[in-house]
Design a protein that fits this description.
Layout: E1 2-8, H1 14-23, E2 28-30, H2 31-41, H3 43-53, H4 66-73, H5 77-101, E3 107-111, E4 126-131, H6 134-145, H7 149-157, H8 162-165, E5 171-174, H9 181-200
Parallel strand pairs: 1-3, 1-4, 2-3, 4-5
Helix pairs in contact: 2-3, 2-5, 3-5
Bound molecules: adenosine-5'-triphosphate.
Residues 8, 10-16, 113, 140, 144, 175, 177 line the site of adenosine-5'-triphosphate.
């Protein structure tokens, strides 16, 4: 069973494309959602975060105190890096455990917005990059999240550009609203299924 990472800049359409892979019965690990879950369920990680950011990082109900945390880490890159360095090992373990639990599939997919930025691609057998024109991505995120163009641009500026990511990816999916998605996805799915069989044989 291969481990495949799927990534792409904000608004490129990763999640939309993963829904199509789900129809093909491919299990998907949504890394960002899972990280949020681990931060409120993994006792060791919770303790590490409290030791680092203080007890106010959590509400009385045990939920993340998002405004408090955002105020600290989004104003100080070194603190954001430190928080990520606490979350990443827990996510790595959780992701590996999840992958090994999957049965009778040629590959699993891990959807992660910062797969290349976090060097998570080193753990994957193959990677898929979703690309779309910048102006379209901006329009999509404004429509989806009801935020300003400046806020979208600020998020984009924190990610690697498509030009930097393209040489690192094994497969590219173009989601420009014109190129049909299903044939692109089926082509990659078939290639991965063949590769998986070869590895088994
Ligand atoms: P993020 O990194 O912010 O999670 P993402 O890469 O997962 O973004 P999606 O959430 O899949 O992107 O897509 C962004 C928005 O654009 C969504 O509202 C989605 O419905 C829309 N969208 C994506 N691809 C298409 C498409 N081919 N046609 C129409 N709408 C699309």
């Amino acid at each position: 069973m291969l481990q495949v990472g799927i990534t792409g800049g904000i608004g490129s359409g990763k999640t939309t494309i993963c829904k199509i892979f789900e129809i093909l019965n491919i299990p998907i690990y949504y890394a960002d959602d899972q990280a949020k879950k681990l931060m409120v369920t993994n006792e060791l990680l919770i303790q590490d975060i409290k030791d680092f950011l203080g007890p106010d990082a959590y509400t009385k109900e045990g939920q993340l105190n998002r405004p408090y945390i955002a105020n600290i880490v989004f104003n100080d890159q070194s603190k954001l890096d430190r928080l990520n360095s606490l979350v990443h090992p827990a996510m790595y373990k959780d992701g590996q455990r999840w992958h090994l639990q999957q049965k009778e599939v040629p590959y699993t997919l891990k959807e992660a917005a910062i797969l290349f930025e976090s060097k998570g691609n080193a753990l994957m057998d193959k990677t898929i990059l979703v690309v779309a024109p910048l102006d379209l991505r901006i329009q999509r995120v404004i429509a989806r999240d009801k935020i300003s163009k400046e806020a979208v641009l600020s998020r984009i500026s924190k990610q690697m550009s498509d030009e930097e990511k393209i040489p690192l990816a094994d497969y590219i999916i173009l989601n420009n609203g014109k190129a049909p998605l299903v044939p692109q996805i089926l082509k990659i799915h078939d290639k991965l299924a063949i590769l998986s069989k070869k590895r088994l044989g």
